[in-house]
Structures are given as C-alpha cells and as structure tokens.
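Interim report to the steering committee. The following record documents the input for RNase H type-1 domain-containing protein (283 residues).
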Amino acid sequence: MIAWSIELSEFSIRYESRGPLKAQCLADFVAELTPASTETSQAWTLHVDGSSNSKGGGAGIILEGPNQVTLEQSLKFGFKATNNQAEYEALLAGLRLARDLGARRVNCNSDSKLMISSFDEFSVKHVPREQNARADLLSKLASTKKPGQHRTIIQETLHSPSLEDKIVNANDSEELGWMADIWSYLQEGTLPTDTDEVRRVRVRSAKFIIINGELFKRGISTPLLKCLTTSQATYVIKEIHQGICGMHTGARSMAARVLRAGYYWPTLKSDCQNYIQKCKECQ
C-alpha cells in the first residue's frame, strides 16, 4: 500500500472511503414499494340516431364528455342507405368521433348494438325514441338540409359506407391454388375424401402455419416464408428479375433471391427457369 501511495502521489490522487448508504436505501425503498397510481378514465356518453328517406340519409351524433363538454354533429350520407344501415353508420361515425377525441370508455344510447374492440369498455343501451329526440333531430337535419343553407351545427358528408359489401366467391379454392388443401386443413380441419390424399395433406401441412390470415412455410435455417398464389408469384418474379432493383440473373440465382426476400411457392425453381427462357434480354 505504501508503494502504491508513493506511485500515485505524483498524480495528486488520494483515496476516499465510500460514505454510508442509509439515505439511498430509503430512496430505493420508496421507489420500489410505492404502488402505481390507478387512474380511471371518465366515461363518455354517446347518443346516435340514423334517418333515411327519399331525399337521402343522415345521422345525428351527440357526444357528451367530462367537464360538461358536448359535441353535436349532423352527418349526411352521400350514398343510398336503408334505415338499419343508417343506424349502424350513425353508431360507427359516433365511435370514430369518440376515438379521435381520445375517449376510452363510451356508453352509447342507440337502437343498434355493436361492440367495438378499440375501446377498453363499451356498452350500448336501448332508449325510447322520445329520450333520443336530439340525435333524431340531427339525423333528419342532415337529410333535409337545402344547398346554401347556413346552420350553426357542424355538418359533414359520408361519401361511402363504412363497410363495403363483400361478394363471397364460391371458387375461393381456385384462387388459393396449391394452398387450398393446406389452408382448409389448418383453418377448419377439413381433409380430402381420398385416404392417400389425407396422409399427404397432413404431412405437408406440418410445414406450414397461418398467421394473421396468411399462410407461411416453416424453415429450418430460414425465417417464415410467405406463401404466394400463382398471380402473386408471377409479380414477384417479374419485380426481382427486371424491376427497379432487378438483375437479369440465372434461374438458380433468382430462386435464391426470392427465398431471401421471404416468399415461397412449390414451383419456384421451375417458374424461374421458364420466366428466364421467355425473357428476351436473357437470350
């Protein structure tokens, strides 16, 4: 120690012992054991009503928040809607307004019942029409407003329905192509009637998984590969081969680039070979 003291003395360095840690222990105790404050957000009250007639459709929205905040909105539909559809559109428009204002708990008074997962707590209560007169008046106001007429109530126009009509195609299996059997087995547990096909589908499906409505292929040394249909595969080959960052490479090189990009389909190598044979610049 004396030798080290002599060596360090020329640098003006001296040893100072560490002081007591009693105060720090108390601070750590308070920081670790203080319970987290639980703040409960105040509930908002939503009154909605929809109206549809020969002149058009509309929705009335009244949103009552904390601190006596009240917002009124009259919404006009730019499309034809039935009375039931007008009720649903009014409810969805009111929920969107509440979400934009940061409401997390909403109590809705309406003729329609719908649960929206965007809110922590949501309840729909059926009320008589006489208790929902204000929202009913706003809904009729939007459908009967004349052009150029000025009003103090905020009015907007909804140009398209919130949910577009989806046509169910009976030939979905044809669109899935090679993925149809695998998809049906993983999603619904459906198997073909042929015994040999049943075993083949089960063995093959063990290499695939469905995530968020999309089919992926498991890899041993590679991440999950997104499975593509025939049309999607054609687009990917075209972009990789002659896109903005494309290079006119060989079939094996292009197939490897497709896999590195995270895509898969069973005829990958043969499709790459056929595409290169048809490419004029590669001949």
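The two ends are 82 Å apart (CA to CA). The committee is asked to note this result when reviewing the revised timeline.
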